[in-house]
Design the sequence.
């Protein structure tokens, strides 16, 4: 660890899924600022992944775009091989990909018993099986190196429940349970596994568009539920994830950190 940077990553290679936009992009850029040996940027849209990888290269840090759908285990394994060839073995994994996956949207509309079962797989695939697949592909690198970090971005819907998002919430809750379990398996290898649990996060967008959203009555009503009267920013997520990826967090594992402006305190 650097004497001057508490969050120094010691030259380790990191993989960030869903890294082509919003919080994923911010995470990838922040890891690059703290002595990562390389960043592999995943997104299911190749152009987004490459654009962020180019930003990182401009910072003087090696980067590789690895576009694939996290629901595809073989694609995750192929990405691991490509990363080893270009950057070296990844020993940091940030499972950030989420929402409803490629082509889906996360908009609460229906009670659980009103939703078609075909819709369940969109939520389970990206938010639960995606975490399984990427962890399965990249954890062996960490075990072999006897060091590493796995950080999974989850949701307060899985921590406290959210109406009309039952399957999504259960997928996020499942990911938390998975992380707690693998934390106990990985501790002997000096690998930690933790979650960051988000509430409402504002996507990156032009200031004018953001101002219109923030001025609406619906947004003001939502914001009244937050102790800190704003929604989360991508940089909020990047800061906490980077801490959990760094040596500063070496005695923390199996935990879920709420990052929510006081929306739902941890008990």
Sequence:
């Amino acid at each position: 660890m650097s004497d001057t940077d508490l969050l120094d990553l010691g030259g380790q290679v990191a993989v960030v899924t869903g890294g082509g936009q919003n919080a994923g992009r911010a995470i990838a850029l922040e890891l690059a600022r703290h002595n990562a040996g390389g960043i592999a940027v995943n997104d299911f849209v190749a152009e987004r992944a490459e654009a962020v990888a180019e930003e990182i290269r401009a910072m003087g840090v090696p980067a590789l775009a690895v576009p694939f759908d996290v629901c595809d285990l073989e694609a995750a394994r192929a990405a691991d091989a490509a990363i080893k060839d270009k950057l070296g073995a990844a020993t940091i994994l940030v499972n950030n990909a989420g929402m409803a996956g490629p082509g889906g949207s996360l908009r609460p509309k229906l009670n659980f018993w009103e939703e078609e079962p075909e819709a369940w797989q969109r939520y389970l695939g990206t938010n639960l099986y995606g975490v399984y697949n990427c962890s399965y592909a990249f954890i062996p690198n960490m075990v072999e190196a006897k060091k590493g970090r796995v950080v999974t971005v989850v949701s307060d819907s899985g921590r406290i429940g959210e109406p009309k998002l039952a399957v999504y919430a259960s997928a996020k809750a499942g990911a938390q349970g998975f992380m707690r379990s693998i934390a106990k398996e990985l501790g002997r290898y000096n690998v930690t596994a933790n979650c960051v649990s988000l509430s409402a996060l504002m996507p990156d967008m032009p200031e004018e568009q953001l101002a219109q959203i923030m001025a609406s009555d619906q947004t003001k009503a939502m914001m009244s539920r937050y102790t800190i009267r704003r929604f989360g920013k991508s940089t909020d997520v990047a800061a906490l994830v980077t801490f959990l990826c760094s040596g500063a967090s070496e005695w923390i594992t199996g935990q879920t950190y709420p990052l929510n402006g006081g929306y739902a305190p941890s008990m």
About this structure: The beta strands are 13-16, 38-41, 63-65, 90-95, 148-155, 191-198, 256-259. The two ends are 32 Å apart (CA to CA).
